[in-house]
Amino acid sequence: AAALFRSGDRPAAMHFVLSGEIRLLRYSKSGGETVLQRARRGFLAEASLDQGAYHCDAVAVAASEVLAIPLRAFEESLAAASFQRAWVRHLARELRRARAQVERLSLKTARDRIVHFIETEGQGGAVTLMQSKKDWAAELGLTHEALYRALARMKRLGLLVIDGATLRQRP
Predict the structure, then answer these.
(1) Do residues 43 and 15 lie in contact, with contact meaning Cβ atoms separated by under 8 Å?
(2) pTM score, two decimals?
(3) Phi/psi zone of residue 65: left (φ > 0), alpha (ψ -120 to 50 degrees), beta?
(4) CA distances (Å), 148 to each of 40, 77, 88, 152, in order?
């Protein structure tokens, strides 16, 4: 996997992922990996805009195309009221997404986390996964085995319809 930047590097650009997937990763002393952000189409590492150094690594986990906007140009764009409003809306959406993730990870059961994800990330009781179920399990804070067991149980109980990457709750 190719690195876009490493922890300790000085931010020089605001990055926007056009295609592929870039993950922000932080490593524990024991070598464990924590995924802080998965960017598939959108801005990456917005919180580093005013930092002297990155506090994580950005790694491409798939062939990716990334637009690098020089920080100076990005900061100058923030002077325009229309761009500033759009940026604030973007950051508010990201904050809501982060809060939903914190709430989801506080739930005790795999089933509750699955339902929460469908309700917060989907529409009309359905969601189409844009990642593998193994990657989704990690995002839910579950082993992939626990996720597969919970999905099978929910399907068997008639609570969930699984059609490829689309999951639909049954009322």
Answers:
(1) yes
(2) 0.78
(3) beta
(4) 24, 45, 38, 6
